[in-house]
Amino acid sequence: xxxxxxSRTIAPAGYNRWLVPxxxxxxxxxxxxxxxxxxxxxxxxxxxxxxxxxxAIIFSIAIVMxxxxxxxxxxxxxxxxxxxxxxxSATFWVSGFLVASLGVSLGQxxxxxxxxxxxxxxxxxIGYISPVSTLIKWFPDRPGLATGLAIMGFGGGAMxxxxxxxxxxxxxxxxxxxxxxxxxLTLAAIYAVLMTAGAxxxxxxxxxxxxxxxxxxxxxxxMQTHADVSATKAIxxxxxxxxxxxxxxxxxxxxxxLEQASPMIQDFFTSVTPATAAGFVGMLSLANxxxxxxxxxxxxxxxxxxxxxxxxxVGALLYGSLAAFGGSAIALFVTLTFFIVSFYGGxxxxxxxxxxxxFGVLEVGAIHGxxxxxxxxxxxxxxxxxxxxxxxxxxxxxxxxxMYLPSLIVMSCILVVGFIANMLVRPVHERFHEVVVPPHxxxxxxxxxxxSLPDQPLVAAATKEx
Amino acid sequence: xxxxxxxxxxxxGPVTPAAPAGVVIRGMAMGLWLVVGTxxxxxxxxxxxxxxxxxxx
Lengths: 466, 57
Known about the structure:
The complex is a heterodimer. Chain A is 71% helix and 1% strand.
């Protein structure tokens, strides 16, 4: 197990930090497969002769486990380093495929729930936060670019897995249902190799390392902290819950489009065929991935708070425009939804950098993990809102674009709530900051310290709450 | 609430730098760049081809 220790991953002086992103991308490209799960949906329905809902539960369990394992495993990951976390993630993710394929082979759906849903979901959560946290530490000067790079891989993972899985299902047997097991085993083998390579290559910077020639600005941007906040303390701050609402609003609204993309464009425009609608879904995937990298990188220049003002404020206006004018022309509909979905992707990718600004790098992975519970909640709320409204209107005989207008307006309102929450975010109060004492000093008892160090500030130079 | 006091040693991970990474690791990292770049390119190309149906269909 020594090879997996954090100490074995500390980079030597002069290590090129651009050798680290491929390790993060390797993991995110692998676990991003979860967004291509729908390719397995129809073959699984045929194999088990079950309902759509029974099969959809597999994906839901995986996403819920993603949030839970990221929330509870974050501190462990920070303590043990990224290599151990990536190895654990690979073990769970690959085991998930193996156990699920056993379930398919035996015709036992509950084993598939256990495999892909439960075990695979744990692999997702640990694998999601670990590379992000590592890249933030390598790119303190450009955290938005760093998180965008890693999380772009998650979006890209589905774009790779979707055509690959479809090809494998067509190749291995006469029917896709019969090809599920070899397809899952093939994917497991590919992801085992890719994630292992990522775990081998990953490196963390030595303590105190800074990019060459980079001098942290003394006068930082108003939202940036000079100090670190532990995960335990972070969840006691209002900032954590405001960002939870921000992420929840952004994800819920994005899912509102993504969930219904194909039927929505066909209901808005009768001239759109299912094949054309599939092209629209593909274009939204590109928007999602481009937004993750592009907007997150831009946030390094624009500032995190302003970037979220754009995602949520402009996003609300775009949703309103979609409801009001979206049905007038396909080009307008496509343009509006392209930007909405790019903001959705950007919101995912920028949030770790926002957390780094507010809480520092000490336990940013653990804090990020806890914030991802907003994703799990939005994953349930978003589809419930959109499908619930659409079903209700459909039952009353409403058809076409009118079926979506109320949910578009609801999404716009949710974004406004997120916008307000973002506007309320202020720098974290210094009472939550960790104090760094030089290593040669002993750790004094806080009560004693209060008496013996009356003239020394208890916290390092840091921003104050404004 | 009083801020907690910690030494740098109390932060996660030991401070001893590891042995210098060899040529092998650097080579592997560059190889991995090639692999993930190719995979991403494949994904983007496949998706872009699918997206052309929106304009060509």
